[in-house]
Amino acid sequence: MSTPSSPSPSCITSWSISEDSLRRYVSHASESCIQELLSASDSSREIGDDGWKVLAFENGVEISKRRSGPLHAVRSRWLLQSVSPQQFITVANAIDAAKQWDSDLVEAKYIKDLGENLSIVHLKFGDASKPLFKKREFVVYERRETMDDGTLVVAVASLPKEITAGLLPKKSNSIRGLLLQSGWVVEKLQDDSCIVTYVVQLDPAGWLPRFFVNRHNTKLVMIIENLKKLVQGCPTSEAICEDN
User: Fold this and answer.
1) Is a pLDDT exceeding 70 seen at residue 111?
2) Tell me, what's a Pfam family for it (predicted)?
3) Is residue 165 within 8 Å of residue 148, measured between CB atoms?
4) Which of 12, 91, 108, 111 stands the most exposed, by the fewest C-beta atoms within 10 Å?
């Protein structure tokens, strides 16, 4: 069975929304995403009790999946030695992740800042991208929060298509996919190391078989090793490498 095709641009209602209303909406939606991410990172639960099924444990990375509607949410968890949360969080963002998903990322930019820790991001992939991303674009929010215990959370998810149609009209030759509740939780350990949990649930839209999408979603969470290399290439823990 395939994922349903995207409606044509003329079939999508465009909502004109003020920046204040957009900020309130994203703040509310991202709070739900943050709670889902914190729940996914809770290591105190018994394996299987939270609906996550461990698929593999490779090179120190635990890969799990959980059914969420027709598509799976996929999670990776990894202990990063000698990498602090402040170091890793510099590359835990929508743009650096998208660069690792597919090298044919033709556009990646912050299109609106809604606050100090709240932004809207546009990601666009080209004709040479892998089938999961070919000619696809995503308009997502990105919210960064530090919890009371020092845990760092980055929540990323698509805005509703009605809002994005008014904010950034879709070009006729592209398919606008959906990134459902996704993001990172970075927990500090005593020895200046951290545990990173990364959750992805992506719906590329268009006519791609669900089994194909679910299989490739699993591969998306394997980018932590590459992000760690980016961290190690940065000169300080507070600086983001300029070429990222």
Assistant:
1) yes
2) START
3) no
4) 111
